[in-house]
Design brief:
elongated; Tetracycline Repressor, domain 2; homodimer; 9 helices; mainly alpha; DNA-binding
Chain lengths: 200, 200
DNA sequence: ATTATTATTGAATGAATGTTCAATAAAATA
DNA sequence: TATTTTATTGAACATTCATTCAATAATAAT
């Protein structure tokens, strides 16, 4: 009994995400959003409530995409290989000289403060989802015998998350690509080696 | 032959830094700056050129303070102890539940993009200064025999820098204090242990 | 075809943004 | 003391900000 939206939501979110990712939440204005998406203010406010609403929808959109990204690696390999492949895929993305936007979630986490409560909690949720996936993967590796029995998978997942945050920041700071690669590789090896089981 | 400034520059910078640290570069307006410092717009623009100039002066101010912070640890201990003490001082600051502002430099690094060129390069300079200090400290430790001869101190300094970025981000993301402490401790041990020499 | 409901339009809103400026005040030199 | 130089004042600047709204268009159900 009503007119349906004329636009493709995920197409709009893709464009909005690119905009926010490049300029940040505060750095991208509603006019920029209008230009980037082709939607007029009225439509934007009718669909997302306000600018913060658009941003949170973008965070969700990005997070879902990231989830798909992780699942993509889960096909054929052992848990540890899946984990390693995902980790180094992020490393490569962070080391890419032509794209130094870092991680949309990490950027948002540092840009937004106590005043943007809804954003903060959304970011927190998405980041912890990623960390939980890492832990699940480590746990699976432990079950399968790729990691030693006494591996503290929760703590290890936190360490890996921290390491990833680290080179996400380095990526933004425009560090040398090889430096990022080297430091990420070394850190990964240092963190994982103590728990890895030698195949018999 | 002229009237001297009426304000104490470092007092102003202290207040401005606190403001920017809490709200970010874009999140703090010039009016906020006026309120926080007590200076009127004209004085601010006469002294710092523009808002970006104030921010860059704050980055410098913070960086110098950080340098003093590092030197404070250099008094009585061995290079490795100095390094460890500094590292865990930052950990404790990051884990402090009442102050989750993270690192002013890291925050600025993620908030500011390609449009704020001057800020980006200032941040880069300050961060690399810290990393260089870490490397020097590691190098001293190697010379003294606290670390093995074949320690790649440059790469290790990069790894430690990344680790610190990591828990700076976690601090902002409002993670549990003990989680931050645990992950930082574990990461530090993993990174350092392979190179540490056992005393004979 | 009529009606109810929602989407889109695009101008308008008031508040806030960073910055400028002429006037004034204060200090240091001559 | 007179002069020069710089600092401070506080209002005013144009611009941009996020948001609203009455008018219009489009759809689905009656």
């Amino acid at each position: 009994m009503a007119r349906p939206p004329q636009f493709d939501r995920s197409e709009i979110l893709e464009k909005a995400t690119q905009l926010f990712w490049e300029h940040g939440y505060r750095g991208a204005s509603v006019s920029d959003l209008v230009k980037a998406t082709g939607l007029l203010p009225g439509s934007i406010y009718a669909s997302f409530g306000n600018k913060e609403g658009v941003f949170i929808a973008c965070l969700e959109y990005y997070s879902v995409k990231l989830e798909g990204n992780r699942e993509q690696f889960e096909r054929e390999s052992s848990p540890l290989t899946v984990l390693r492949n995902f980790f180094f895929a992020v490393v490569e993305q962070s080391a890419d000289g032509d794209d130094r936007r870092g991680c949309f979630l990490v950027n948002a986490s540092l840009e937004c403060g106590e005043s943007e409560t809804a954003i903060k909690s959304k970011v927190r949720g998405c980041l912890s989802q990623n960390e939980t996936w890492l832990r699940d993967q480590l746990e699976a590796a432990r079950q399968v015998g790729e990691l030693s029995e006494d591996t503290d998978t929760t703590k290890l997942a936190a360490c890996l998350t921290g390491a990833m945050f680290g080179f996400r920041v380095m990526s933004r700071a425009q560090e040398d690509s090889n430096k990022i690669r080297d430091m990420a590789t070394a850190t990964f090896e240092c963190l994982m080696t103590p728990w890895q089981q030698v195949a018999i």
